[in-house]
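An example makes the point: we let one protein speak, the chain in one-letter code, the fold tokenised, and here it is:
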Amino acid sequence: MRLPVYNLFTEDARGNPVWLDALADFEVARVRLTQLASANPGAYFIFNIRTQQVVTSLVSTSEQISQK
């Protein structure tokens, strides 16, 4: 079993990070991030704990969700 490297976050109303999940595989983390953003509008990002950097981010709006 691989240890989680990628942490998924969203932002609260004040822009503070809110932890959602931890995953070992980047592609799985990216798919999960897309699923979350499709279901609930907001800002999301994936943080790599090894490099201490945000590796991808996504902002979804209610208009994008209603168009699907």
Observations:
- The chain has a mean pLDDT of 90.
- DSSP finds two helices and four strands in the chain.
- Helices lie at 26-39, 62-67.
